[in-house]
Amino acid sequence: MIIILKRNADPKKVDLLTGALKAKGLGIHYSEGLNTTIVGLVGDTTRVDEDQLRANDVVEDVRRISEPFKAANRKFHPKDTLVSVGDRQIGEGFFQVIAGPCSIESEEQMIQVAQAVKQSGATLLRGGAFKPRTSPYAFQGLETDGLKLLLQAKRATGLPVVTEIMSENHLDLFADVDVIQVGARNMQNFQLLKELGRCKKPILLKRGLANTIQEWLMSAEYILAGGNPNVILCERGIRTFETQTRNTLDISAIPVIKRLSHLPIIVDPSHATGTTWLVEPLAKAAIAAGADGLMIEVHNNPKEALCDGGQSLRPEEFDQVMGEVKRRVAFEGKRM
């Protein structure tokens, strides 16, 4: 439910209203725009009398939100959310590029790739320490040793780092990680989402392999409802009948999310296709559709990569893609 306040409403009367609503056990989200101020109510609003609210002299109107996601809803929060990662920002006109290897393999590999992507213009560094794999016999990542190498690369380059968490029991290990990624397989790991809602770190929430946009936003809702407003959505392709690509990038998800939600959305063209030559055209498409950033896999020797080498760009290929990305981002009037 949202309450639209009258312009120049008496702040003391607004405080009395919100205090009474809090006393009913409701969470309050205050969103002040240029022309409209909205009070969003989170919780069980079935006992709230709409007519009684409308009779309050600071209330312009009362509306119920029909969608099951409330805190993630643009009706609830009309202004775009801006997520800060160190001195970098994602959303509301700010565009960021996250790049690095799918999995962390060695100190030499991680430092080489980190320095190369920074030189090309990447603004955040990714690297997988804990790797969820379909096969139990596949490389599962270096785990805590991988995290140490990722943080070494962070110190060497100054780039904020993004890496995936597999379990709520690992949260203490991620104290120095700048952005915690929830992978496609864990998008509906609700216990993990609840724990991430209690922390204040930015969370990069990837769309599940076969999940609808509403299911994706409901997963974001778990984090937001826990008190963490710093959620970044990531479209990484969904499973369809098509076999020419690893997944099918849902470009339409970008404008749909922008219409339904205030959360920033980035695109991962590497996982979406599983093919290096498709990364650049889909990165361009994502920018044109309104994405707030990209996540691109880069490896110094893809043929020898322990994970997803077939979709990883070489540093020189990434440099070429970044040249085109910078031009497109500037054309769209966004800032990097």
What does this structure look like?
With 336 residues, the protein is an alpha/beta fold. The protein has helices at residues 11-23, 50-54, 107-120, 144-157, 190-197, 213-225, 253-260, 269-273, 279-289, 315-331, and strands spanning 2-5, 27-32, 37-42, 59-63, 83-85, 88-90, 96-100, 124-126, 161-164, 179-182, 203-206, 231-235, 265-267, 293-297. Helix 9 (279-289) runs parallel beside helix 10. The mean pLDDT is 93.
Would you spell out the secondary-structure blueprint of this structure?
Layout: E1 2-5, H1 11-23, E2 27-32, E3 37-42, H2 50-54, E4 59-63, E5 83-85, E6 88-90, E7 96-100, H3 107-120, E8 124-126, H4 144-157, E9 161-164, E10 179-182, H5 190-197, E11 203-206, H6 213-225, E12 231-235, H7 253-260, E13 265-267, H8 269-273, H9 279-289, E14 293-297, H10 315-331
Parallel strand pairs: 7-8, 7-14, 8-9, 9-10, 10-11, 11-12, 12-13
Antiparallel strand pairs: 1-3, 1-4, 2-3, 5-6
Helix pairs in contact: 3-4, 3-10, 5-6, 9-10
Beta-strand segment tally:
14
The proportion of residues in beta strands is: 15-25%
- What letter string, H or E per element, gives the SSE order? EHEEHEEEEHEHEEHEHEHEHHEH
Shape: elongated
Question: Describe the biggest sheet?
Answer: 8 strands, parallel
Biggest sheet: strands side by side, in what order? 13-12-11-10-9-8-7-14
Number of helices: 10
Mean pLDDT: 93
Sequence stretches where pLDDT stays below 50 over 5 or more residues: none
Oligomer: single chain
